Amino acid sequence: MTSDPSAEGAIHSHAFQSIIHAMPQSLSKVIIHTIFSTKNREPSLDSATRPRMHAYLATICRDLGGEAFCVGGVSDHLHVVTTLPRTLSPAELIEQIKKPSSKWIKAFGARYRASSWQRGYAAFSVSPSHLEAVLQYVQRQEEHHRTHTFQDEYRELLRRHNIEFDEQYVWD
């Protein structure tokens, strides 16, 4: 008895269609650690403003459909650890974090009217098995930056994640 290739294809097609119909949702859990600085690394995020900024950024992430695990940083840069909403690319997420937060801080008064973020950013994927270590790292930023500059930290993270970069284009 010979098998009919067209019948075999129909069986596989039917099985594939059954799988598609059994999966009505699009689900994802991609955790990213994003870092960006103030323009020219100006120390414009003072200790009184920083917690409010962190809370605002976490709210933006949640409003976009992400799960904000931690927002931290020091006077010249921020770290955001969040899930990537399944409908956004990393670049879109970061744009939707930076634009409204830049506008938001300017409303705090004359001291902040010139505040803005650097144009670039770094974003790293975070394995769920390493999430706790990343969260602790972000929570210890003030301690860490007593002995390390933002530039040193940024270079080290880029190297650790095997990201090639040209020093003349990293800073703005």
Question: How do the helices and strands line up, and which of them pair or pack?
Answer:
Blueprint: H1 5-22, E1 31-37, H2 50-63, E2 68-74, E3 77-83, H3 90-106, E4 122-126, H4 131-139, H5 141-144, H6 150-160, H7 167-170
Antiparallel strand pairs: 1-3, 1-4, 2-3
Helix pairs in contact: 2-3
Summary, kept brief:
The protein is of the alpha+beta class and 172 residues long. The chain is 45% helix and 15% strand. It has a four-stranded antiparallel beta sheet, with helices on both faces.
Explain this structure.
- The protein is an alpha+beta fold and 172 residues long.
- 45% of the residues lie in helices and 15% in strands.
- The protein has seven helices and four strands, in the order αβαββαβαααα.
- A hairpin with a 2-residue loop joins strand 2 and strand 3 (77-83).
- The protein is globular and about 75 Å long.
- It starts with a helix and ends with a helix.
- The model has no long low-confidence stretch (mean pLDDT 89).
Please tell me the overall pLDDT: 89
* Largest sheet report: 4 strands, antiparallel
Counting H and I runs of at least 4 residues, what is the number of helices?
7
Range of helix content: 40-55%
Order of helices and strands: HEHEEHEHHHH
Secondary structure tally: strands: 4
Using the CA coordinates, give the radius of gyration.
22 Å
- Proportion of residues in extended strands: 15-25%
Query: What is the structural class?
Result: alpha+beta
Strand order of the largest sheet: 2-3-1-4
What's the N-to-C terminus distance?
72 Å
Low-confidence stretches: none
Coarse morphology: globular
